[in-house]
Amino acid sequence: MKESFSLDALLRDNIKKLVPYSSARDEFKGEASVLLDANENAFGSPYSKNYNRYPDPLQHLLKEKLYEIKGVPPEQTFLGNGSDEAIDILFRAFCEPMRDNVILVPPTYGMYEVSANINNVAYRKVNLTTDYQLDLDGIAAAIDGRTKLIFICSPNNPTGNSIRRQDIETILVNFDGIVVLDEAYINFSKQASFTKDLQEFPNLVVLQTLSKAWGLAALRLGMAFASADIISVFNKIKPPYNINQATQEIVLEALRDVEQINTWIRSTVAERAVLTEALAGIPQVQHITPSDANFILVKLEQPRELYTHLVEKGIIVRDRSKVELCEGCLRFTIGTPEENAMVLAAVEAFYQTGQ
């Protein structure tokens, strides 16, 4: 158990003093049949189902269901408008603009840098090693007294590999700020989630999402798991009703079908192996990074020309060829067997014709 961590020492002064927005229904306990406190339309909605009442601001039913699946208690769970909301709140809670800094380990998910820029917070980049693992010495050298957050994505985007667990634990033990571990792709990995270690590491925030394995990207529901004290800070800062009622209802229904998700995960992992093996047999493919995610990073000849060729065929992949440490690479999301066959045929045709 890490003992040197002090949440109060990390928080911005204005957040410590913040009095969160409170509605009459937050203050009222019990059942009511006449709701005349929130200036809602009492007659209903112009729809087959009424959405005239504000949603549960803390999504109690949804968090209880997630507790059954994830094993993290509701008081240690934050739900946001995608993981991006949680990322933004971390900056607003802990980073004083133009004073504090955070550490990023590229190549990695681009929203960490975007959120730093939006919040006017300096970021220090410590590149991953050539095998896409943490440079522990470089990270240690980059930390100073104003470093508040370290962002680590595992499995990593865009490389797809998992970061060594021992290295993440080393940072958690030795860094007195917040370690943000983004596990957006954890469902596709054999690695265990760090949500099981929240009690041991009070400075850990784990991000997950329902946009990937759960197939609910359009609903924009992200999750943050941390100590109850950190989650209470999130709830102070978030808008009062950040998750709408329709999303809460649809997600609650989707969470009842875990077996369907597990079937899709197994299919995706199997297709990942099939596509990886097929692409590796093409002479112009130089390297494929072993992946624990639902995508593969492929280094190949003429990446930009191939990308344009695929677009012309109506196939959209991600061009990462100009990203440092990903030079010459395209990122392929794993699709259905039919979609993967189309991608493979298009890649083979491109190299065969020399276009």
The helical percent reads 25-40%
The name CATH uses for the topology of the largest domain is Aspartate Aminotransferase, domain 2
Radius of gyration: 22 Å
Mind telling me the CATH class of the largest domain? Alpha Beta
Largest sheet at a glance?
A: 7 strands, mixed
Walk me through this protein's architecture.
The chain is an alpha/beta fold. The chain folds into 2 domains: 7-256, Aspartate Aminotransferase, domain 2 (3-Layer(aba) Sandwich); 259-353, Aspartate Aminotransferase, domain 1, CATH 3.90.1150. The chain is built from 13 helices and 11 strands. Helix 5 packs across helix 6 and helix 11 packs parallel to helix 13.
List the helices and strands and how they pair.
Layout (H helix, E strand, L loop, with lengths): L6 H4 L2 H5 L6 H4 L32 H11 L6 E5 H13 L6 E4 L6 H8 L3 E4 L10 H7 L4 E7 L11 H10 L3 E5 L21 E6 L11 E5 L2 H10 L7 H10 L3 H23 L4 E4 L6 E6 L2 H10 L5 E2 L9 E5 L3 H17 L2
Parallel strand pairs: 2-3, 2-4, 4-5, 5-6
Antiparallel strand pairs: 1-7, 6-7, 8-9, 9-11, 10-11
Helix pairs in contact: 5-6, 11-13
Output the keywords:
single chain, 355 residues, alpha/beta, Aspartate Aminotransferase, domain 2, Aspartate Aminotransferase, domain 1, 2 domains, seven-stranded mixed beta sheet, four-stranded antiparallel beta sheet, HisP_aminotrans, amino-acid biosynthesis, PyrdxlP-dep_Trfase, Histidinol-phosphate aminotransferase, histidine biosynthesis
In short, what is this structure?
The protein has 355 residues and is an alpha/beta fold. It has helices spanning 7-10, 13-17, 24-27, 60-70, 82-94, 111-118, 136-142, 165-174, 228-237, 245-254, 258-280, 303-312, 337-353; strands at residues 77-81, 101-104, 122-125, 147-153, 178-182, 204-209, 221-225, 285-288, 295-300, 318-319, 329-333.
